[in-house]
Design a protein that fits this description.
293 residues; alpha+beta; D-amino Acid Aminotransferase, Chain A, domain 1; D-amino Acid Aminotransferase, Chain A, domain 2; 10-stranded mixed β-sheet; 6-stranded antiparallel β-sheet; 8 helices; 27% strand; globular; binds 4'-deoxy-4'-aminopyridoxal-5'-phosphate
């Protein structure tokens, strides 16, 4: 069955979806995006994604292409028309089409593209297999809280990881602190057993999955810290994992080729995956979604 995309007001066959050559997204990466997970036919973290999109659009002064409620109607339509029970929705808004010139155009209609893709259902056993990450310098701009479509440093980092057989690259800043992965948030359980992920600010994208894991941990009385952690702490960690809408809670068992802890998936990581799945299945996503930087 052919895929359907929503492109600027129309549902079109995916292969025929196209945008203007002077779309500012194409020329300047002048746009933002969101990726929603679909789990068991339901959109996960809807409110969180909308709130984060509000933040990203606001920071870049890009107009909403339509109201939030209408937008979610279209998102659901795209999910339905593509028969996605498990998978993801990709939503991109750019400033729109204008003669190529750096300043914002006076009049511009924001461009909206929404696609959906089927993926295998969340598989706890696969997520618990454990993957490797490498560490690389964070060469991105200073507003990582904005979910910008300018992802070249992220692509370079992910490619570097994949070229050495690693799943993800964790980026570190000038203070040797791990900020996050190229498309996921980074978590460790330190050698003393502290569950840690970096605090929110302009140096990371606050993940909807990160927020869900935090709420799930809090609800079950698990202690955690939101603070900076160093490459050294990561290298000495007992456990590690990444979170994202597509990776869920994915165990990391090697950092820069060296085993994390005993090299097996950690107990707390496995526990958090269970808690996360229960949480999204019962609550649908995080409730507190108003801290972006
Ligand atoms: N950080 C970065 C840089 C990302 O690209 C993503 C995925 N969009 C995340 C974190 C995780 O965010 P989420 O849990 O909302 O998918």
């Amino acid at each position: 069955m052919s895929r359907i995309a929503y492109v600027n007001g129309q549902y079109v066959p995916h292969s025929q979806g196209s945008v203007h050559i002077e779309d500012r997204g194409y020329q300047f990466a002048d746009g933002v995006y969101e990726v929603f997970a679909v789990h068991g036919g339901k959109l996960i973290g809807e409110q969180g994604h909308l709130d984060r999109l509000t933040h990203s659009l606001g920071e870049l002064q890009i107009k909403w292409p339509m109201g939030k409620r209408s937008l979610m109607v279209v998102v659901r339509q795209v999910v339905q028309r593509n028969h996605v029970k498990n998978g993801l929705v990709y939503l991109q808004i750019t400033r729109g089409v204008a003669r190529r010139d750096h300043p914002f155009p006076a009049e511009c209609q924001s461009a909206l593209v929404i696609t959906a893709r089927k993926m295998p259902p969340l598989d706890k056993a696969a997520l618990s297999k454990g993957v490797g990450v490498i560490t690389i310098p964070d060469i991105r701009w200073q507003r990582k809280d904005i979910k910008s479509i300018a992802l070249l440093p992220n692509c370079l980092g992910k490619q570097q990881a994949r070229s050495v057989g690693a799943y993800e690259a964790w980026m570190y800043n000038e203070k040797d602190e791990i900020t996050e992965g190229t498309s996921a948030n980074a978590w460790i359980v330190t050698k003393s057993g502290e569950l840690v992920t970096r605090q929110v600010g302009q140096s990371i994208l606050n993940g909807i999955t990160r927020l869900a894991v935090i709420e799930a941990a809090r609800a079950s009385g698990l202690a955690f810290s939101e603070r900076a952690f160093s490459r050294q702490e990561a290298a000495e960690a007992k456990e590690a994992f990444v979170t994202s809408s597509t990776s869920h809670v994915k165990a990391v068992t090697r950092i820069d080729g060296k085993p994390v802890g005993n090299g097996h998936v950690g107990e707390l990581t496995a526990n958090l995956l269970d808690l996360y799945v229960d949480f999204i299945e019962s609550k649908g996503g995080p409730v507190v979604t108003n801290r972006w930087n």
